[in-house]
Protein 1
Amino acid sequence: MQQNFSVFEGINRVLEWFARFAVLNLLWVIFNLPISILVISLALTNQVAVIVTTWFIIALLAPFFFFPATTAMYAVVRKWILGERDLSVIRSYWGYYRENYKRSLASGALLVPIWIICVLDIYYFFQLNLIVSIILIFMLIFLFIYTTNLFAINVHFSISFKSALRNALSFTLIKPFNSLVIAIINLIILYLSLTSYTFLLPFFTGSTIAFLSYYIFNQKFSKVQEMQEK
């Protein structure tokens, strides 16, 4: 009887975590609504001009929607990882969204042009020089890791914006192999969600990537603290 109760308790906990991730991801999609609609429209067209124009509009909207929404998501998963698992996801998300909006907007205004330049460079050199293209792809992965670390730092520390940018670079360079592995895993999750398992997008993709990224960041931060205390 007690064993059956433990099994049901375990199942209940798993379902609770599924619900938490799903609610958080849905909030992220809703707060990204203009971008979410544009992403859906991309799946409905094969016209190059329309696709390019849509991605350009998404890039323009990203600092205002994607970055604040994603920062709030990171703030919630931070609470989960640090042990605060019974908080109200909706109330917490909205509070963090308002609290970090201006800082998130500044992060997006800085990083989006860099992302655009990297993507355009890869597109341009892909047909001209394979080696340069490979180098640029690694630079894009580095930028992905840097961006996820900046999200984590913005919700973990109360420091100036310039300090956050510097610390994001430092954390990106600490244990680069671990960073590369988690970046590849996250990119695989994103790729599969966009191509094969699109049902994951509204429910689990964003929250799972945020959780994994912040978990690795927190592990690095703990290691740095241990080294400083020795």
Protein 2
Amino acid sequence: MRSEVKIGLALTALLVAVTAAGAASIKNTKHDLSSGSTGATFKATNTDQICVFCHTPHNSAQDIPLWNRTNPTAGTFMLYSSSGMNNEPVKTGFTADSISLFCMSCHDGATGLGSKVHNVPNGVAISMAGGNDLLTGEANLGTDLSNDHPVNFLVTASGIAADGNLGALDTGTKPPTMKTADVTNGLPLFRSARGATTLECGSCHKVHDNTDAPFLRTTMAGSKLCLGCHKK
């Protein structure tokens, strides 16, 4: 009887875990640009494919992560920096391999949402409703990111120690992470030409899950996301 109860509890726990994992989805969010999307401000008129706007299984524009878009030029961006940054500040644009450039291939407001898709569905160019192929409004960050949180800079243990008010760097995780005691899961760091632990857009945002809008890795309630890196 005890064994049956344990098995039953285990199956219940597994079902709850699977249900929770399946709850997070890009479908019908602002990142779902398909014609059938109920959540997108900008969407296509002639394809119901969701993933095609960013990914392709074959002949990708870039192999990681099977990228299906034409990225903007890295050097056209101005990034935030200040003399008070102990982790190495960079002002003069992204590295060409920065994962943040993938985000900016829509959010620069100058790269077409549908027109810059590398492999189009069935060889037919994607058309966007109302001819709106460029992001507008607050989602359009432009190319001057000097008034936005710094990205594409290398996080180092020495920089963290010099600052004194940042979370710990853990290079033993895959990917490496940075965290304080205020969060359960560390915030991921990414590899770029600057090094193996660069902070990028994806450190704070998870593009396929809008549970914590706008696509955040954890809630902003009580500034939890900010306190995941910053000790205040």
Protein 3
Amino acid sequence: MNDPAIFFDTKLISIKTLEFLDPDKIETINVIKKDTPINKVSYHGQLYITSKNPEQYDFISLEEIKADFTKINSNDVVYMINGKFIKENLENIKLDRNDILDVEVTNSEAFYNSRKSDAKFDIINILGKTKENLENKNKILIRGQEVIGVK
């Protein structure tokens, strides 16, 4: 059985996108218990989420993040969000551009050479503005020792 079709301010999003929404910014949630086929995918029910301020969100897809934040032209890409691999529904995952802290790309020869496979791909890790990521952004490593809050 599939997940429900989830609409956030009328835009279809994946269930994974919900992980990155601030619950305090949600105005209403409506549930409709009716199976819905969309783009040849059968969803079990519908979930309509309305934010308190729909204009504040600037949702972009993973492909748009790749185009806007990296110089990668290849389709051989693996996506991560906050260090977790994204394995399915890539086309429906949308993130708020305003909540992206950083986009890290791993594509060095050292990385390729460390694996036993001839397959080459880039890893794009999208870091959101979570409390943990914001705290780690302010840490600096000096000779292997952590120095906190020094910039």
